[in-house]
């Protein structure tokens, strides 16, 4: 059994941020079904007033990573240990209301999925609130590049590299330093080359890693470039070819919206701009409408039903990399605009332009307290995260002195009356030097001062360390938890040559042998598991004929999306849900929890049983058009339908054990009453947990 211990958490200096990750008891807009949030994590809702009129705080309690059951690595099942005990806090694995045999069902299901790693909390870091450094009054233009810095402290003197922080990439690497991470590293491809295109790379690459997944390039591309394999995605790739499908996905504006995307009109606040959300704040509160939650609801809908799958994967990637939490104090007004005007506007475009747009957006300026920063009382939060999280990374070569000078340069930017403003009276004037960037910064004139700030932001966005940081993060998302250095170097070179344009970097990635050789090297995180389950089961966004619309405030579709959203919160991951600016970790060993895994399986059972009547489901006995007459053949057919491939002999045997039958036994279309349990067990297999 793999050792799930991870390195001890390291405090991140004296930073923190405001936001609530879980629904508070007073949250409106809830469903009667919606699960009760974890009481110990509930956070108080915003108590009124406008966020730009308050001084932000950083606060978040760390969530320790739970020790999970035996894990599924790329080879499938590790050496089988005793089935983990299911404590009183976990759901019942048995389907008590289903007819048919249940011989050994609990034991078999735990044995099957107990090796599949999924999620729970994990990577959150403890923060403490503190207002940043104070500087002397500015009388004339100064020079921040000198050796004397007035705000140093014995605990953190000027020039000290902030080596105790953890960034999006660095936290991934830290988790991979555990024994479980070392085990994964041994099975990862070591190196490779770039071909003339993705199809050529797929054809010429031999998969040598050990994995339970089929070594089928079409399935591999569908798993990595979408939120889950569907029959339609496989058919589209076969019809267009690998190169043609990727070209199609990389031009999302030409992909027509699906019916589910058109139904997003059921979420009324999505239509409102920032000014309207501010003006209608009280009315929306009275109606129980929560714009920041409806934005998350819409994101979930797009992940499940949009045909723009690669675009949505990249939106999710940037929401972790350039992260602003949905639930920060002010998110209800500003976060939807950040999603639309920053992340989605540039997800497949230019990262330097995305970072420039982010640094002028009220959501980021309020989230990281830039609105509080002025020349005589500088707040470092945004300046620090621009370096540490959003560009060069913690190992990018900057010092505490660089952070302070960047913070001085960025003074003057803020929010007023809901809009971005530049306040020249708050701007520091004087020479600055950050990571080799030097500017006289000699004027308070808004055009000149903002030009200086934009020049700096562009400089760090194109810095070689940023190129490597983005490359490492993309390779971790699409290839493996331990991507080969050869690939990271080539991606970084593509980023630099193309001035931060993302499409060429992605084409370099998909044209690499490392990508095509890494079959089975990623494990789905909890949100990804749930979305992939909806996609695999072909859930339709239309309400079931059995649905009784007892809620006149919202449509069944809107309520259904909120139910998925609430379940994701229970599982510990949902779009834009990380309260801290580092985003969710993207490596397997950060997401291991028996409880979360069981909750995911049981949600799959709820969908198979059609209990969410806000949506329409394919009855489990009709998932296979012509069910075979014998149990073993039926399991094979269900596996092909749900995960795109047959299972191993061991997994097939375990699933037959869930139903309490032998492979040669005759069964009807309902699997003699056990088809829901059998299908759920397939969705608990490594073939569904791995991407």
Automatic annotation (TrEMBL):
Residues 1-104, 145-167 are annotated as: Disordered. The chain crosses the membrane at residues 108-127. Residues 158-167 have a biased composition (Polar residues). Residues 40-53 have a biased composition (Basic and acidic residues). Keywords: Membrane, Transmembrane, Transmembrane helix. It comes from the Bacteria. This is DUF1800 domain-containing protein.
């Amino acid at each position: 059994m793999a050792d799930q211990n991870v390195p001890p958490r390291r405090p991140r200096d004296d930073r923190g941020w405001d936001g609530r990750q879980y629904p508070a008891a007073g949250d409106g807009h809830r469903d009667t079904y919606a699960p009760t949030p974890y009481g110990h994590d509930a956070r108080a809702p915003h108590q009124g007033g406008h966020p730009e009129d308050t001084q932000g705080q950083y606060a978040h309690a760390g969530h320790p990573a739970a020790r999970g059951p035996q894990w599924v690595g790329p080879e499938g099942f590790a050496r089988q240990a005793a089935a983990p005990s299911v404590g009183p806090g976990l759901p019942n694995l048995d389907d008590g209301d289903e007819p048919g045999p249940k011989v050994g069902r609990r034991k078999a299901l735990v044995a099957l999925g107990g090796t599949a790693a999924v999620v729970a909390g994990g990577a959150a870091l403890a923060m403490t609130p503190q207002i940043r450094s104070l500087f002397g009054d500015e009388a004339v233009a100064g020079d921040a590049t000198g050796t004397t810095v007035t705000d140093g402290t014995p605990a953190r003197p000027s020039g000290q590299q902030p080596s105790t922080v953890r960034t999006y990439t660095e936290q991934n690497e830290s988790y991979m330093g555990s024994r479980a991470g070392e085990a994964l590293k041994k099975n990862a491809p070591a190196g490779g080359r770039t071909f003339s295109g993705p199809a050529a790379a797929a054809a010429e690459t031999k998969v040598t890693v050990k994995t339970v997944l089929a070594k089928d390039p079409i399935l591999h591309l569908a798993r990595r470039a979408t939120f889950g394999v569907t029959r339609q995605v496989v058919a589209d790739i076969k019809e267009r070819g690998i190169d043609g499908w990727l070209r199609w996905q990389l031009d999302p504006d030409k992909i027509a919206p699906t019916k589910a995307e058109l139904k997003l009109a059921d979420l009324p606040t999505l239509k409102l701009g920032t000014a309207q959300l501010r003006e209608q704040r009280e009315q929306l509160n009275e109606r129980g409408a929560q714009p920041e939650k409806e934005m998350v609801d819409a994101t979930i809908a797009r992940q499940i039903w949009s045909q723009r799958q690669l675009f949505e994967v990249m939106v999710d990637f940037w929401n972790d990399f350039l992260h602003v939490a949905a639930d920060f104090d002010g998110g209800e007004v500003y976060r939807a605009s950040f999603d639309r005007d920053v992340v989605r506007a540039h997800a497949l475009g230019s990262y330097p332009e995305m970072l420039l747009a982010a640094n002028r957006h009220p959501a980021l300026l309020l989230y990281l307290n830039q609105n509080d920063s002025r020349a005589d009382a500088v707040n470092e939060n945004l300046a620090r995260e621009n370096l540490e999280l959003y560009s060069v990374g913690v190992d990018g070569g900057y010092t505490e002195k660089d952070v302070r000078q960047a913070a001085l340069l960025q003074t003057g930017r803020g929010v007023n009356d809901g809009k971005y403003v530049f306040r020249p009276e708050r701007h520091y004037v004087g020479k600055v030097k950050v990571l080799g960037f030097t500017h006289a910064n000699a004027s308070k004139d808004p055009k000149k001062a903002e030009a200086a700030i934009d020049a700096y932001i562009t400089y760090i966005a194109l810095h070689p360390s940023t190129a490597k940081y983005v490359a490492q993060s993309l390779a971790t998302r699409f290839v493996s938890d331990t991507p080969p250095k050869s690939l990271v170097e080539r991606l970084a070179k593509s980023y630099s040559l193309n001035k931060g344009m993302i499409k060429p970097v992605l084409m370099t990635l998909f044209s690499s042998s490392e990508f095509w050789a890494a079959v089975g090297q990623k494990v789905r995180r909890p949100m990804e598991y749930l979305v992939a389950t909806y996609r695999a089961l072909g859930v339709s966004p239309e309400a079931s004929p059995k649905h009784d619309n007892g809620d006149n405030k919202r449509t069944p579709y809107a309520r259904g999306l909120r139910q998925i959203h609430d379940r994701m919160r229970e599982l510990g991951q949902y779009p834009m849900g990380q309260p801290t600016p580092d985003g969710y970790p993207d490596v397997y060993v950060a997401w291991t929890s028996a409880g979360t895994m069981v909750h995911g399986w049981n949600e799959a059972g709820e969908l198979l049983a059609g209990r969410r009547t806000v949506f329409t489901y394919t009855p489990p006995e009709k998932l296979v058009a012509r069910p075979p007459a014998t149990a073993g053949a039926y399991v094979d057919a269900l596996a092909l339908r749900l995960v795109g491939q047959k299972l191993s002999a061991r997994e097939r045997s375990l699933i037959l054990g869930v139903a309490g039958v032998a492979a040669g036994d005759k069964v009807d279309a309902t699997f003699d009453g056990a088809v829901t349990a059998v299908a759920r067990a397939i969705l608990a297999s490594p073939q569904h947990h791995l991407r």
